[in-house]
Amino acid sequence: MLSRLTFLTLLVLLLAGCGYRPASHYTKNKLGDKIYAEVSIPIRSPEYAIAITDAVREAIVGRFKADIAEDKNSATSVLKITSATHSVSGLQTDGQGITVSYRATVTLKTTVYGTNLTARTFSVTGTYDFPAGTDTTLSEQRKLDAVKEAAGKALDGLLSKLAIRVI
Fold first, then answer.
1. Closest CA relative to residue 80, chosen from 106, 110, 50
2. Cα–Cα distance, 43 to 21 (Å, whole number)
3. Would residue 11 count as lying in a domain?
4. 24-51 average pLDDT score
5. Structurally, how many domains does the chain consist of?
6. What predicted TM-score, i.e. pTM, was given to this entire model?
7. Domain assignment present for 5
8. How far apart, in whole angstroms, are the C-alpha atoms of residue 11 and residue 146?
C-alpha cells in the first residue's frame, strides 16, 4: 500500500504534469492585480447589502487573488454588482415540526469589465446550508453570516464562469 505522503506526491506530480491550473490562475491574467468593486444594491435591507459587499471584497482578495483598487482609474478591472436578492428559508424539520436546518440563497447580477476583458454580465447564485443550532429561534446575526457565505459561493460561480470565458 502507498503511504499518504507518497499518494499525495504522485497526485501533485500528475496534476502538475498535465498542465492543471486552478481557475483563479486564468482569471487573474484577465482581471489583473487590482480590481475595483462597485456594489450598488437597492437598499431594502442595509445590513444585508453590507454583508454582500464584505463578501465581494473578501472574494477579490481570497478567490480572485487580487488587490482592491481604491478607484476605477487605478483598477485593471471593475466588478460591478447592480442587484442582489437573498432569502433564508427552512430546509429540514424534525419530527415535531421544528426547523433544524436552513438554506441561505443569494443571486447577484454582476458585470465585469476591464483593460484586458470585454464587458460581460453574469447572473450567479450561491447557496449555504446551516443548522439551526441549539436554540429554536434564528438570530439576525446567523442570517447575515449565512447570506455572506452564500454570496461568497455565488462569487465562486462567477470565478468559474470567467475562467470558462477566458480559457
1. 110
2. 39
3. no
4. 81
5. 1
6. 0.79
7. no
8. 34
